[in-house]
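I hope you will forgive my troubling you with a question about protein structure. The record follows directly beneath this note:
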Amino acid sequence: MKRLFILISILAISCNKDETGVQTDKNSINLVTGINFRQDKDGTVLKLGNPNVLVNNKFLLYPNPANESVYILAEENVTDVWFVSANPEKIYQEINFNNVLSTNLYNEQSIISNSNFSISGQTSNSFKIDIGTLAKGYYKVFVKIGGKLYWDNLYKYENQGSNEEQFSKINDFWK
């Protein structure tokens, strides 16, 4: 009995959450592996991490990071938009997501059930979305264009501290 107690104690001490060996699946709807910062539609893009996005030159999401609102500019009309909260993880940094991601990776019902915020019935290729009510954090922003799903990663911040401080924290995380 004493040996069993010692063995259980050693196992409990030696195990922790970070050592479970379980890694988030690269196709998880709630995973962000990087982000593309953009201030406006014509601005330079700053890539942090290895963004697991499927944009395929179909749309732009800006500014990123954003506080109160974002703009979507697309080649064709966007019919639906969903914001799904996500967790940033510095994993899969060597994967070429162009070879992994496709427009049928996620089904629409899965996106809807995971969505924190959505807009449907759009018939425009350029519009502004108020995101002021969303909590601070990372989101996958899904858009439906021509019946297909595309997505980009977004960081939503709150007006606490300067923009430089917030950018510095995000940048430090992805280093």
User: Anything to note?
Assistant: The CA atoms of residues 57 and 103 lie 13 Å apart. The two ends are 48 Å apart (CA to CA). Helices lie at 2-14, 108-114, 163-174. Residues 4-19 have pLDDT under 50 and may be disordered.
